[in-house]
Design goal:
Glutaredoxin, Glutathione S-transferase Yfyf (Class Pi), Chain A, domain 2, 8 helices, globular, binds glutathione, alpha+beta
């Protein structure tokens, strides 16, 4: 299997962390593919032109990080437990990521195209999602959970793209969850490049 990723994509990072956590490095080769370069390999695997994309041996490809994560978990000798509640947290964490990535997009547009409406909307959504996840944090103690992993990836992305973010303030549960993940080798080996 080939996993197309880019080093700065948090969605791809989630899959890369999982590959390491589940001991699947021998099954999955990782291909660095900046989606904005529209490389032939990525576009052939994923018509959406996005990463992550997992190209399977039979020619099919999986194109959503949560789907890829579920697939990888199914391939593991010792899969992580899955529940609807964990999937609910995973979806909330993915939504937080969507808002943070969309907020980042607003930052890198030409200044003339900045939209206060969209920036404000994204920021309010990010804060609401963080507060909701803080309330859930006491239940997210197992590192072997796709929900907890997704939340850790999302708050780490805030540190990466918005170093001025005060997401830790008043959110000790999320801070603790992040600390647990930040100590894991799978997390440090897949950290986005500085700068
Ligand atoms: N919902 C998708 C989002 C994937 C996504 O947006 N990836 C970004 C990189 S962070 C990308 O490839 N962007 C290229 C583009 O939008 O053209 C997932 O969970 O995998």
């Amino acid at each position: 299997m080939q996993l197309f990723y880019s080093p700065t994509s948090p969605y791809a990072r989630k899959c890369r962390v999982l590959v390491r956590e589940l001991g699947l490095l021998e099954l999955v080769s990782e291909i660095d593919a900046n989606p904005f370069e529209d490389g032939a390999g990525l576009l052939q695997a994923n018509p959406l032109g996005r990463v992550p994309c997992l190209a399977l041996e039979d020619g099919r490809a999986l194109t959503e990080s949560s789907l890829i994560a579920a697939w990888l978990n199914d391939q593991a000798k010792t899969p992580w437990a899955s529940s609807w509640d964990d999937r609910r947290i995973e979806a909330l964490g993915s939504g937080l990521l969507d808002l943070a990535v969309a907020r980042r997009v607003e930052m890198v547009r030409e200044a003339a195209l900045f939209s206060d409406f969209w920036i404000g909307r994204r920021e309010r959504g990010i804060l609401r999602a963080l507060d909701e996840l803080e309330a859930e944090a006491p239940a997210l103690t197992s590192p072997q959970s796709l929900g907890a992993l997704t939340v850790a990836i999302a708050v780490d992305y805030l540190d990466f793209r918005f170093p001025e973010s005060l997401w830790r303030q008043g959110r000790p549960g999320l801070e603790g969850l992040h600390r647990v993940w930040a100590q894991r080798e799978s997390f440090s080996l897949t950290a986005p490049p500085a700068g």
